[in-house]
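Quick start: load a record and inspect it. Here is Penicillin-binding protein 2:
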Amino acid sequence: MAEPSLVFTDVNERQGMFTRRIFLMGGLVAFGMFALTGRLAHLQIVQGGKYKKLSAANQYNFRLITPPRGNIYDRNGKLIAGNRPSFRVMIETNEVKNIDDTLDQVSYVLPQTLASRRRILRDINQNQRSVPTIIAGDLSWEDFSKVSLYANDIPGVVADMDEMRAYYYGGAFSHVVGYVSKVNQKDLDNEKNASETDFNLLHHPSFRIGKTGIERAFDKDLRGVAGGKKVEVDARGKVVAQDDEGSIEPVPGKDIVLTLDADIQQRAIEVFGQDSGSCVMMDIHTGEVLCMTSSPGFDPNLFVSGISSDAYKLLHDYDRVPLLDKALSGTYPPGSTFKTLVALAALENGYDPKTTHTCNGVFPFGNHVFHCDSHHGTLDLHGAIVTSCDVYFYQCALSVGPDKIAALARKFGLGQIFDIGIEGQKAGVVPDTAWKRAYFDGSKPWRPKDPKWQPGETPSMGIGQGFTNVNALQNCVAVSRLANGRKAVLPRLVKSVGGKPYKETEFEDLAADPNHIAFVRAAMADVVTSGTAAGFAKLDLGPIMMAGKTGTAQSHTIKSGSRATLHLEWEKRDHAWFVAFAPADAPKYAMSVIVQHGGWGSSSAAPKAREIMRMALLKDPEIQKRIIGVNPADLVDKPLSDVPLPEDDAGAAPPPPDTLPTST
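Running the structure step on this input writes:
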């Protein structure tokens, strides 16, 4: 049995332990109160402004307002591309619980196809939740009225009016002005490294970005700066009021004025009709491009809202290739239009213009026989240009050589890419011995190792065939420099951006003897009066005459002795060229016209150039004065249709020859 133990407790010791506990607990409570007070003071005093802003942000939102896109005008102030009112219906997904149910309700008022339903759902998934998605755009007034009547009863559905890009001349400016379309992922990727990019604007359903032409090249200038509409929202984000005083107005995009003339551009499209080709016209003194068409064109309005795959396939598969800019991206052998530069290169290198050669229709050289379209007999250089004799220029080119011809052709703009503000130019080819050595290096199957310039390649170059390829803009620059005679004129397409002149430059002196240029110009004048273009290029404008040069360029290899192509399939026919300037005695305008697979340059391209040049001359007050002998100031308010003109006399087409020339 255990012995009992005695425990003695000190009252003072127990009291001390209680006091220490009270002190510890009291300290903890005091520290907590101090920390809480400090935190409250920090939130209300130090960070009060920050949380006040966050609170206001929950109460107020800014809804982005897209800026009006800048307008594009022609040189006379005619609106080419602008904005028009458009009715639309949108869904704000952050206010919708069930997307499918909401779309079903809308479909009772505005029927949807399966494809449109899929498109809407795809756009909703791709957009940010705060960004509204367009259900239907560019509605008629009747459809818009129906939706507006029921929109307030369908949560998240908004019917309003927006602006849509409009192209008022349809396909006349489709390539040079281009078009806008919806922003895609590639556009967003391209904008990542761009400075000052507003990605909220890029994601907005109303925003359209420039895809081609001027619309693309000057997109940053045209798009403007977005604004914001201040609205009051409830806890669900639904708009309950609008604060007009807190809203920020958008800044419209800059207007762009082009050097193009809408009347001349439209006339060129009318003249081409269904033919495929291009026309470029320049002022030879300023370099301003008055006309730059590619035919057939396409309606850029189709791309603004999104073109259907079937419609795009029709454009893409059409053999006339309406999506290709034939003025800049299409390159073709220049044919006999190149003979003017061959002749000038010969003169610049000491060639005697009185040198004669006899044309019997053929020119045997090496193991090949080169042909001409006619038996021209004995000709000097002037006569060879006027009659476009191939046999003469085969021998002329051989006497000069490819390097000297190429050097002069480059001085006159061939093989060059010009800074006109838009992309898409192809340099083409101006061949010489160095080019062939570099190109035919055996690196590709279509570039076999054949670095040596063969003697038989020079005659073909002399008539604008062989490797030589140019585009319509380059050929226009070349004839502009010939017509100017003293300055290396450069093309200029954009006149001003936002009211400020765009890239005005001084032209360098043209490195060619003016007397030699005058010789070639005189021969070109005779081409129209008595040569290959006689009866096809007469202007019928009194004393105003045009000078030019025809060209028929092979586009398809044909067997010797069977050289006619007009009876062949369209894509195997020859290309038709005509380059010209007017007035012949005091040049002001120059142009190049190519009719793709058009056959003869004289009968296909020259008549088109004639009609387009007439339009430019009749609009010029000084030329009007020469034509009708009155003060142009008296005609300011007089319509062009009231100006008396002689009757047209285009002349009759000559009978088809037995054989088609290599180049005429």
